[in-house]
């Protein structure tokens, strides 16, 4: 595994890579690229050039000078990385959390770049309105609303970013056999200055803005109005309540031929690290088809 840097869209981005072959680009979210520590070597061994970049704004990648954490720019970063890393039409794109939103958009925006797509724990945008009036669902997404407030910068930073520990538990809980301590530490290190933490919160403020979120003027609807045309694998943890078996079936039915999906039993929102053996096996089998 090698640590490198690359310039994409005028930004200096950090990344790690392993292996040779078709590009396999893995995108993280409001967490840590460390979640790919099991999948990355497995893809390299399977004959891929496995690359895990650190998202703009998160350490050690560059802070964007214009402060943009908007999804169109994240999508441009993903497709720009494909270009800069010499990816071909046989490249594959894998995303989790905000990397999942980015993957849905990047694969649809540039289908010629990506042969297959994998998204973990972030369904297509249209499925987010399921149960939106349910108080339990509102409580599950409480950070989307809380992060809109300016005081969130101060509160999230307090007590060694204790709010992020709570948020991790809120979405994952205690998965037997998975010790999240190092992943939580890595998440905090990625947001290790007030400026970087602010940009992390801006992911939610800029893409789910209070003034337009849920209205016809909401930009995310237009950015994610198309699904990939490539075969797509969608994986979701059974302990992450956004998607259930019935919803999974609806998602797969909307995807193009050759697509598939699965619920990962006992996994929460961070299934790449919580159930790495099963997740790796499903992704590698999908890639080999």
Plain-language structure description:
With 289 residues, the chain is an alpha/beta fold. The chain is 42% helix and 17% strand. It has an eight-stranded mixed sheet, with helices on both faces. Strand 1 and strand 2 form a beta hairpin. The protein starts with a strand and ends with a helix. The model has no long low-confidence stretch (mean pLDDT 95).
Beta-strand residue fraction: 15-25%
Q: Estimate percent helicity.
A: 40-55%
Provide the spatial order of strands within the biggest beta sheet: 1-2-4-3-5-6-7-8
Low-confidence stretches: none
Oligomer: single chain
Pfam families: Abhydrolase_1
Organism: Streptomyces toxytricini (Actinomyces toxytricini)
GO molecular function, one term: hydrolase activity
Domain AB hydrolase-1: 25-276
SSE inventory with pairings:
Layout: E1 2-8, E2 11-18, E3 23-27, H1 39-45, E4 49-53, H2 71-84, E5 91-96, H3 98-109, E6 114-120, H4 135-140, H5 142-146, H6 152-172, H7 181-190, H8 194-207, H9 219-223, E7 232-237, H10 245-254, E8 260-264, H11 271-274, H12 276-288
Parallel strand pairs: 3-4, 3-5, 5-6, 6-7, 7-8
Antiparallel strand pairs: 1-2, 2-4
């Amino acid at each position: 595994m090698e640590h490198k840097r690359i310039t994409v869209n005028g930004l200096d981005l950090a990344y790690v890579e392993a292996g040779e072959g078709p590009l396999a680009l893995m995108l993280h979210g409001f967490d840590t690229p460390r979640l790919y520590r099991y999948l990355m070597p497995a893809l390299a061994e399977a004959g891929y050039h496995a690359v895990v970049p650190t998202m703009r704004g998160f350490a050690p990648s560059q802070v964007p000078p214009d402060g943009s954490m908007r999804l169109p720019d994240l999508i441009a970063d993903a497709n720009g990385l494909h270009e800069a890393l010499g990816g071909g039409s046989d490249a594959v794109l894998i995303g989790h959390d905000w990397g999942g939103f980015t993957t849905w958009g990047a694969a649809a925006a540039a289908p010629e770049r990506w042969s297959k797509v994998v998204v973990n724990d972030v369904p297509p945008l249209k499925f987010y309105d399921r149960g939106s009036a349910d108080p339990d669902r509102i409580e599950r997404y409480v950070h989307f609303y809380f992060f809109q407030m300016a005081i969130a910068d101060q509160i999230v930073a307090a007590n060694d970013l204790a709010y992020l520990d709570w948020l991790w538990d809120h979405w994952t809980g205690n998965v037997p056999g998975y010790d999240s301590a190092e992943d939580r530490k890595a998440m905090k290190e990625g947001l290790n200055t007030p400026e970087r933490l602010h940009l992390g919160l801006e992911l939610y403020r800029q893409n789910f803005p209070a003034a337009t979120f849920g209205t016809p003027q909401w930009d995310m609807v237009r950015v994610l109005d198309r699904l990939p045309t490539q075969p797509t694998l969608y994986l979701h943890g059974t302990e992450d309540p956004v998607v259930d078996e019935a919803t999974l079936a609806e998602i797969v039915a909307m995807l193009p031929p050759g697509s598939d999906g699965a619920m990962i039993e006992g996994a929460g929102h961070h299934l790449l690290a919580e159930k790495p053996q099963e997740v790796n096996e499903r992704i590698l089998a999908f890639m080999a088809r």
